[in-house]
Amino acid sequence: MKTKKIVLTIMITLLVTVNLMFAQDTSRYDKEARKFVGTWKWEKDNSSFKLILKFEDVDFSGNGCEQMIMERIVGYHKFVKNGKIVEDSTPFKDIKININKGLKNTLFGGTNTENKDILEGSITHSSKKKIVKFVIKYIDYNHIKLVKIYNAPGVKIGTPDNPYDSSISLPQNIILTKKK
User: Fold this and answer.
1) Contact 27, 65 (CB under 8 A)
2) Which of 123, 124, 131, 171 is exposed most, by the fewest CB atoms within 10 A?
3) Are 102 and 68 in contact (CB under 8 A)?
4) What CA–CA distance (Å, rounded) separates 110 from 28?
5) Which tens digits make up the pLDDT trace of 41-78?
6) What SS3 state is found at 14?
């Protein structure tokens, strides 16, 4: 139970930190991110990766910020490897994000300030019990590319019972197709 609280605290802190890096002011609107909205899927052999990306106004008020609302891409993913579900947050896709009441989404991000065809942020890698960073490139209306998933730089915390695992099993350098 104590480990869950520590992981949740770290997760919320990382999400707020990542999004503060994207923020220009307390009411940043990310119009370019709308092109990433939709359900996207990659399949190969007996494996697949599905992303459901939504656009939401996220209220960060009450986390040490006064009335801070930012438009963000929030998402949910399902990862199937060799026919077995490894990670799946898609059942929570209809729950509105609430920073103060726990997070059901597994992806959080916004467009890059220098290249609006790049979506950057964090994704919960639940099978590895950590949050990793991602870069997604918009190709066209029907395609995006999950360019890379990587560990955020900095100190990693582990315990003797739960050592930090630096490996990443989520697919990357893949092209996802928009599902209608």
Assistant:
1) no
2) 171
3) no
4) 10
5) 999 999 999 999 998 777 666 656 566 667 778 899 99
6) helix
The model's pLDDT over 98-157, given as tens digits with 9 standing for 90+, comes to 555 556 678 888 888 789 999 999 998 888 888 899 999 999 999 999 999 999 888 888
CA–CA separation, 128 vs 168, rounded Å? 8
Beta strands in the chain (DSSP E): 38-44, 47-59, 69-81, 84-88, 107-111, 118-125, 130-140, 143-150, 174-179
Token look-up 């290249």 returns 115
Torsion of CA 88, 56, 173, 80, to 10 degrees: 10
Best CA proximity match to 53, nearest among 27, 71, 67, 80 = 71
Q: What whole-number distance in Å separates Cα of residue 68 and Cα of residue 58? A: 8
The neighbouring-strand residues paired with 53 are 38, 75
Written as six digits, the tokens of 77 are 């993913």
Dihedral of the alpha carbons of 75, 71, 178, 135, in degrees to the nearest 10: -70
b/e for 100-120, b at 16 or more Cβ within 10 A? Answer: eeebbbbbbbbbeeeeeebbb
pTM above 0.85, yes or no: no
Q: How many residues are there in the chain?
A: 180
Q: Which tokens is 55 given?
A: 């656009």
